[in-house]
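Bumping with the actual sequence this time:
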Amino acid sequence: MATSCLPPVTLTLKQFMRRQQVLYSRILQATPQVPKDFYRRYLKDWAREDFKRNKSTTEEDTLKELEKTLA
């Protein structure tokens, strides 16, 4: 019997996008606690670019990525 790579409860696209917004906010809120300025800037730039790159992700793309990471 084949097992699914998806978690037992799959998020809707709207739920997934909201989770991403919260994650982005938490990353930006945590950056002042990073001790060195270089690493703070790196973390902010990484988060900004990663979220921009994935801005147009569709539900199908998201599910494919989830399958890859859980495999």
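The tokens above came from a reply further down the thread. Residues 5 and 71 are 6 Å apart (CA to CA).
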